[in-house]
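Pasting two entries for a bug report.
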Amino acid sequence: MVKDFGKWLLPLLLAASGACLADPAMAQGRGGPPAGLPAGLPPATPGGLPGGFPGGPPDMPSRGPPPWAADAAGNRVDGIARADAVRSQAMAEPERRRATARYKADPAAYELDRNGALAIRGEVLATGLDGADLAKIERKGFSILRRDEIAGLGTTLAVLERGGTPAAKALHILRRIAPQGTYALNHVMFESGAGAGSAPPRARQPAAGGRAVRVGMIDTGVAPAVGSSARVRLVSRNFAQGAGSAEQHGTAVAELLARAPGDVTIYAADIFGPDPHDGTSELLIRALGWMAGQRVPVVNISMVGPPNPIVGAVTGKLIGLGFTIVAPVGNDGPAARPLYPASYPGVVAVSAAGADGRLLPEASRVRRVDFVAPGIATVAGISGRGAEVRGTSFAAPLVSRLLADRLDDPDPEAARRAIAELAREAQRPRKDRRWFGHGLVAESADAR
């Protein structure tokens, strides 16, 4: 299937006016560039156009599901068979255990979907519905819990429920009532990293010309101390219910984004909080809308979760408009399965290595990886005393910063060039090449 898709994609890249926008974030770096592409660029693979969508930048579907999610199994994209499209599949065992533990701790707040992913009980996300659709849905016994225009995305997101009906069943009922809408469970995501650690990683590439860098992150709350340096400006916004608070995970990610030389403004969206409705697809979508409104060129999302059609459509639109989204592949080791948002088309997927340049044992072994960066670091953290962190969550911000150093504003062509430049700088290992994508792009202090 992949070969068939490649045969279709190459002529399109050569013939279409948007061919120059081929996105090397989806390439896996084998061999030279296809004929007709600039020398030095990684070869194009399925999803080579911005956002991984045939034909270039996509719009949010006003009616019906996004093209890549044309069927539940994710096997067709605009009528083209494609084996590596976003698919619905059982979660890897570590993710299933984590989801099950949280579900058992509060079954009134959560439910598990058929693949073992965690979701908010009874809630269904919906886009592409007008007033008449929603009135029809309400007559069938559904309630509209929340309905808002997502700033920066030009779409309206509704959260629906039907009292006492599990979300998975409610979703199927909604598809029968208003099949033109796009629906998804309100999945819950998890941070992709944990405590452990060694020496701090150091990015090799400082900001060009001493200019201020702008980079975004969607994570837990960040300690205000991160913005205490004269060269670091922290712009925070809380999307979770209840008062936001600093957490170790988000603080570590922010510190790593700020660690390279030069002035930097970090836009930090907190989607985690004290309420069970934290870390959800809904809050992630709202945070992405904020990033779009702020015109932040690179957004780091150090989280993992299941595929979600609406989140996938939103990321696809943003990538098509020139935003660069970076995410970790996860920490499920050799038994890993694709996690999201890293596995959405066009997202820059990052794995993690130790000081010796080898993949961390827990780093997910998945084919969909673009870069590897050091995943072990010592950070000041919320205590200020120094804390050790480890995992793909802490490799992703190094790649995000390296890309943000090259980008002033969201722009498809500039993003393509930045990723291609980083790919040319990457160092490929002698072993385990298939898990390194373009290669290792940052050094650890211990490795020198």
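Entry 2 (this is the one that rendered wrong in the viewer):
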Amino acid sequence: MEAFDGDIYHGWAEYVVYGGLPLTVTMKTEEQKIHYLTNLFQETYLKDIVERHQIEKTQELEDMINILDSAVGSLTNPLKIEATFKSSIQSNISQNTIF
């Protein structure tokens, strides 16, 4: 593989774990990749959503992201997310807010 310093199997494993952002290939340590991707998510994606939609309950947004992350591969809907908020986080976020 040209961009990845290793065989195709290790390159695929890196891609599956860290995604296809080109800059991650140049990073040597796992810590660098995790820091870069976490910072990118916080500063680019999350911050943009909060500002664009004037979201005030940022902690609840982060909680919802974590709930959705843990439900990858399963069907979900606002009612199920609301129930998870009530049972796991003891929050009273309604499905209207989630939707």
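Dev reply: Rendering is fixed now. As a check, the viewer should reflect this: The chain has a mean pLDDT of 83.
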